[in-house]
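User: Quick one: structure for sequence A, then sequence B.

Assistant: Sequence A:
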Amino acid sequence: MRFIGITGGVGAGKSEILNYIRKRYPCEIYLADEVAHLVKQPGTECYDALVELLGQDVTDESGQIDKAAMADRIFANPALLEQVNGIIHPAVRKFLLERLAEAKTAEETELFFVEAALLIEGGYLALVDEMWYIYADEAVRRKRLRASRGYSEEKIARIMSSQLTEEQFRENCDYIIDNSGDFAESCRQIDERLSGTAKRH
């Protein structure tokens, strides 16, 4: 089984790439943001630790952690943000490694993907078999973010400045998919890298 990390800057089209892979190849795909939501559910160790750190009033009426309330607190306090990340990131990693072990035991698929913008910073280079960088030209990414998410130029600039540079992504990744132009060309690059892997019928 190949454990593959998918990373890249905002607006590069990581979701689009993964949708193609999901339809074409038998695989398991996990998005780190979705896993982070799962591990914060009531009854988990992560939930208990976050409520203890942030206070009971960080939960909403249903007992779930209120995302907005948590964000308000941590982004105004870098030390608290670090503590919260110190709780969530290990929980996400544990969840993924448990799913990976289960997938290897089941032997039903050859590919296991995890996607996040922060895979490299999160130490996943030491865990994955290969890291893919989904690249798109900055002008293309800006245009996509304005069109699909309605982001302002200020918001786009802020997010981009907080992420790794193109050079840093390239230095740390084993394979680069250029997703700047025709999507059929992106698909060709994926199929080339996954040649020899069973496809869905």
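Sequence B:
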Amino acid sequence: MVETITMTPQELSRYEIMKRLLNKEINGTEASKQLGLSVRQTKNIKAKVLRLGPKGITHQNRGRPSNRKLSEERIETIERVVRAKYPDFGPTFASEKLLAIEQIKINKETLRQLMTRWGLWQAKSRKRNKEYRQWRARKERFGEMEQFDGSYFKWLEGRGPECCLLASIDDARGIITQVQFVRWEGVKSAFSFWKRYVETKGKPMSIYLDRHSTYKKNQKSVFDDPSCLTQFERAMTDLTVKVIHARSPQAKGRIERLFETLQDRLVKEMRLAGIETLEEADKFANEVFIPMFNQRFAVKAAKTGNLHRPLTRTESKGLEQIFSIHNKRVVGNDFTVRFAGVWYQLDKQQPTLVRPKDKIRVEERLDGTIYFSLNDKLLSFAALPERPQKIKIPLIALSRSKPAWRPPANHPWRRQLFFGKRQRSQVSTPSPVIPPEAL
């Protein structure tokens, strides 16, 4: 009997790294860097994988409540005491008084989270010193961090359309890893850039970029909400790539200085080469200019090794799905879905059960095609020429096939329906009136 082991994308990525470690493709230090763990933790995971196989990657306490979790009754007791006696106390002071007077022991940080949830404490914003900036050392290995940004400039000097240059530079070696000319710095452009990147070079450990609306939601209501992700952050989370947002242009100074150099050198090189279209510019920059630039300006990394991770089999198959714009839509009562001003009719037969009011995922791929999915199953549908008329459909759900079973004539359900109608007809029919003289 084959045992099925469910893994998260992070655990699956860890297992691929451990397989490379066991096959001696990388050493323990490089594996610990890719895992983001210490060497000791990496050795422990390696021992578990050798003993348990893939199951050693997953957490042994999965599905079990934590031993240190506070019960709801204890949380209610603490809330009642804090609201009654210490509503205006800070978390640290309140935890000390709870232990000294109430004999209730609770960590100050746990109490800080609880008081924030209860509305008794508001987290203070950290002070920002705009004058002092500390120098940050380069990352140690190639692929540990990629700085990424876009720059609008007259790259073709009027010989072609106005465009934006997307570029990434490795933080450890200072080499240009990839550039791409696009019309604007939008979601699809960023997806196209990084799809080609991970297909050719693998997944970097992290990406360092600014707070452009394509990469970061800047509304105050969701600014620090980790669950509110942009399409870019969601795709990188699926690939287990860490996204780091810079708080100032100086923080990602390497990519900012790169664009200053490109606006001088690359523009003149393309002028000499007679580049006039975006396709020619993209090919020239990646095949001609980047090798020359890296040969001259590259630096030696502090440590050898490449921390780019290859795509897993699941990621390779679902790359088109990962780098697509995801939206949610609700299925109508007539099994229609509206998206981008177009109405779509779902087919009667579907790979999974579809009911009215179900929320399906709409995937807008890079080539412009639309896909509907529910429970990780692609749904079949057809576009309608106009808005459908409101009609009553007897179907209550869409399934894989039509039910072949029909209740027989003597089925209790049919008998109940038949006799119910017969009794109602008998009650509704008036009995004949007999005249007195006929008696």
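The chain has a mean pLDDT of 85. The two ends are 85 Å apart (CA to CA).

User: Thanks, that's what I needed.
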